[in-house]
Design brief:
Number of helices of chain A: 1
Bound molecules: zinc ion
CATH superfamily of chain B: Thiolase/Chalcone synthase
Structural class of chain B: alpha/beta
Number of domains of chain B: 1
CATH architecture of chain B: 3-Layer(aba) Sandwich
Oligomer: heterodimer
Strand order of the largest sheet of chain A: 6-5-4-7-8
Radius of gyration of chain B: 19 Å
Strand content of chain A: 35-45%
Number of strands of chain B: 11
Order of helices and strands of chain B: EHEHEHEHHHHEEEEHEHHHHEE
Largest sheet of chain A: 5 strands, antiparallel
Chain lengths: 141, 398
């Protein structure tokens, strides 16, 4: 826990406050366009498909597949060194958008492209929780 | 109104030329800071052109990480005591160089100024503490949606490599073949930072950094600077060397953050390449040699494919067959590239540009490409985000 303050903490903006508040409640929120129905991530002022400004927050199912991944052997900084080797992956959510995350709760050797995963939350503090993913066949605490 | 794909853009073909080009000492350069390297590069390029500093009326630089200034180009102009009509710092990562050339050519063609120096330098190797270098690396990625996950820069590129392997069957040996080819070129270049030959096995046996990228799949960390002098095709005839003409230039911008990429395996090099080829009126088969951005080995495979030098997905076998080696059908990075010549960060692709000029002048000595008439130079910045392609030639018309 002591090394965590040195990690790269997300600094929320007016645009992302609802997202991070959702994470703190262990809910993965993404935007949905009220005009065309597109789901998008990260949060934006406009729908990237139809340019409408009418977007609502919806709770994503938290399920997706690994689109690509790497096993990091040399950490980006001291704060991440204790986690080596760790997986950084691009996750394609069931709703469509892609997000970067870590794949946790499994051996790094099990990770492959196409692997179904589900969201879990890593609580860095009372207010900051980072969405990560674990293989879909694992029980989630 | 939507701008149509076929809308006409004013052509820069043959309007401008490079009349001066030079590099500083590169590699580990302890006796000069980044600002000095930038000025040294300018002085050398001016000397190469046979031009006094008073003959410049435009200056383009990119910022330095070791010695950053709020307004970098203005600082360099002040240092030199020149008072240009056109003065900007550009920032598109490694693609910066050629977007700067695009800017310079546009400024000259539109009459804003007549002679521009583009200069870029940094001292990532000697001018930064390990702490600052790590902090710089940690600043890559979206601050909220990527950085918390702790990917080092090679990790971002590893995501592209892994996807390419999955989709096309590209192997670790294919990636390694790029590094081996770059070292073969570097062995023939006395200024290259790393010249000792390496094998596929050496690459595969080097430390894994972020699967599938080994240490030798990653480019160098260097000091160095480089500059070119660009002027109108009309003025270009009055300089010391035969001009090298800008025949085509094109950009493509797909995303900034890799998690927002529309494709992991096809890049905006498709767009930049098509735009540059269309302007020059040539195609991939007409190119005698290419200088391709090689910060990590998979990038070269994607660029070769997206620029049309081989079929999509065939980059690995193309390189493994020796196609980009010295003496191959398409020599790539005849100076040794970022993998073996030098990589001081943002200025990285400048050295590919000055090398292209040297080759097109027929002045590359032992490593001279035979029949070097038409060169393609390509760089990307971000994480395969911003792309710029240029076509250079010995003759003004193709
Ligand atoms: Zn919409």
């Amino acid at each position: 826990m002591s090394e965590k303050p040195m990690k790269s903490w997300p600094e929320r903006t007016p645009e992302t406050a609802a997202y991070w508040a959702g994470c703190a409640r262990h809910e993965l929120l993404i935007q949905r366009c009220l005009v065309c129905g597109l789901h998008q991530f990260y949060p934006r002022l406009l729908c990237t498909a139809c340019s409408a400004r009418t977007l609502e927050w919806v709770r994503a199912a938290g399920r997706g597949v690994i689109k690509s991944f790497t096993i990091v052997r040399r950490a980006v900084s001291e704060a991440y060194a204790p986690d080596v080797p760790y997986v950084v992956a691009l996750i394609e959510l069931e709703e469509g958008p892609t997000m970067m995350s870590n794949v946790v709760g499994c051996d790094v050797g099990e990770v492959r492209i196409g692997l179904p995963v589900q969201v879990v939350f890593d609580d860095w503090s009372k207010d900051v929780s980072i969405p990560k993913f674990t293989p879909a066949d694992r029980p989630v605490a | 109104m939507e701008i149509g794909k076929n809308s006409m853009t004013a052509s820069l073909r043959g309007r401008t030329a490079i009349v001066g080009a030079a590099d500083t000492e590169v590699g580990v350069v302890k006796h000069m800071g980044a600002t000095q390297l930038c000025v040294d590069a300018i002085l050398r390029a001016l000397a190469d052109a046979g031009l006094d500093k008073s003959g410049i009326d435009g200056l383009i630089t990119c910022n330095s990480m070791a010695e950053p200034y709020l307004y970098h180009a203005e600082t360099i102009a002040e240092y030199l005591q020149i008072f240009p009509r056109y003065c900007i710092s550009v920032g598109a990562g490694g693609g910066t160089t050629f977007t700067a050339l695009h800017q310079a050519a546009s400024a000259i063609a539109s009459g804003i100024c007549h002679t521009v120096v583009i200069a870029m330098a940094d001292s990532l190797r000697s001018g930064m503490s390990r702490q600052r270098a790590l902090a710089m690396q940690s600043s890559t990625g979206h601050p909220q949606f990527e950085r918390p996950y702790g990917a080092p820069v090679p990790g971002y590129y590893a995501l592209l490599a892994q996807a390419h392997m999955h989709e096309f069957g590209t192997s670790a040996e294919h990636l390694a073949a790029v590094a081996v080819a770059m070292r073969k070129h570097a062995a023939r270049n006395p200024t290259a930072q790393m010249r000792a030959p390496i094998s596929i096995d050496d690459v595969l046996a080097s430390r894994m950094i972020a699967d599938p990228l080994h240490l030798l799949d990653c480019s160098l960390v260097s000091d160095g600077g480089s500059a070119v002098v660009v002027t109108s095709a009309e003025r270009a005839r009055d300089f010391k060397h035969k001009p090298v003409y800008l025949l085509g230039v094109g950009e493509g911008h797909a995303h900034e953050h890799i998690s927002q990429a529309r494709s992991l395996t096809t890049s905006a090099a498709v767009d930049s390449g098509r735009r540059a080829f269309d302007m020059a009126g040539v195609g991939p088969r007409d190119i005698d040699f290419a200088q391709l951005y090689d910060c990590f080995t998979p990038v070269v495979l994607i660029e070769l494919e997206d620029l049309g030098f081989c079929a999509k997905g065939e980059g690995g076998p193309f390189v493994a067959a020796g196609s980009i080696d010295p003496g191959g059908p398409l020599p790539v990075n005849t100076h040794g590239g970022l993998l073996s010549h030098c990589h001081p960060g943002n200025p990285g692709s400048m050295f590919a540009l000055t090398e292209a000029v040297t080759q097109l002048r027929g002045a590359a000595g032992e490593r001279q490409v035979s029949q070097a008439n038409l060169a393609l130079v390509h760089a990307q910045g971000g994480i395969m985000s911003s792309h710029c392609t240029i076509v250079l030639g010995r003759e003004r018309a193709t």
